[in-house]
Amino acid sequence: MEHNDGSKPPKPMSESKSEMIELVLPNDTNPLGALLGGRLMHWIDLAGALAAHRHSHSHVVTASMDHIDFLVPVHVGDMVILQSALNRVFHTSMEVGVKVLVENYISGTRQKVATAYLTFVAVDRHGRKLEVAPVIPETEDDKRRYEGALRRREASKSERERRAAARSSSAQT
Ligand SMILES: CC(C)(COP(=O)(O)OP(=O)(O)OC[C@H]1O[C@@H](n2cnc3c(N)ncnc32)[C@H](O)[C@@H]1OP(=O)(O)O)[C@@H](O)C(=O)NCCC(=O)NCCS
Fold first, then answer.
1. What are 123's strand-pairing partners?
2. 29 lines ligand 1 (CB under 6 A)
């Protein structure tokens, strides 16, 4: 519910936490039976959107996804667990962190596959941007992620500005 001034009340980070589980099938893999990187990126996008929807109670579009290192291979028959949560809200945008684990259900072991940070922008059904309620970090780990999100936003903003300047100078030559 909105406050009288139109602002939305803050919500704890824990309320956005989401988990998505996928079983890797042959159609998700290359001819050697290893999970396709593009398929994993698609799942990361969906898992991230779950947390963004839960927090904002709105439609969202993906504005960006940071670079991803795939730490261990994932094979057909493995279970992939994608855990997501809000890291920080700015105005209309929010950063979501997604942690990817692979579980071997025979041995019961889990390994970290990747971590990704995505920025989603809240929009209404006509695609107009919406203000998002602030998020409250609760634990020490939440606070570390909250601070990190601001650093990443500043770094990616300067990188976008640098690329835009390079595009406009190459268009003039
Ligand atoms: C992302 C999008 C909504 C930004 O809208 P815009 O009017 O160009 O951008 P604005 O400069 O007003 O920025 C709006 C917010 O998005 C953030 N943003 C914009 N581009 C961004 C990017 N590349 N990475 C991270 N954040 C970004 C801004 O910082 C701003 O955040 P704030 O409101 O919390 O301060 C718009 O570019 C868009 O619709 N892109 C396509 C999205 C899409 O189709 N995604 C699926 C990929 S196929």
1. 59, 129
2. no
Measured in angstroms, how far is the CA atom of residue 119 from the centroid of ligand 1? 8
Per-residue pLDDT of the chain (173 residues; tens, 9 = 90+): 677 677 889 999 999 999 999 999 999 999 999 999 999 999 999 999 999 999 999 999 999 999 888 999 999 999 999 999 999 999 999 999 999 999 988 888 999 999 999 999 999 999 999 999 999 999 999 999 999 999 999 999 999 999 999 998 888 76
In this structure, which residue's CA is closest to atom 20 in ligand 1? 63
Nearest CA to ligand 1 atom 28: 93
Q: With residue 161 as reference, give the H or E element that holds it.
A: helix 140-172
CATH architecture observed for domain 11-172: Roll (3.10)
Gap between the Cα atoms of 142 and 70, Å rounded:
24
Centre a 10 Å sphere on the Cβ of residue 50 and count the other Cβ atoms it contains. 20
* Domains of the chain by residue range: 11-172
Ligand 1 centre and the CA of 38: distance in Å?
A: 22
pTM of the shown model: 0.94
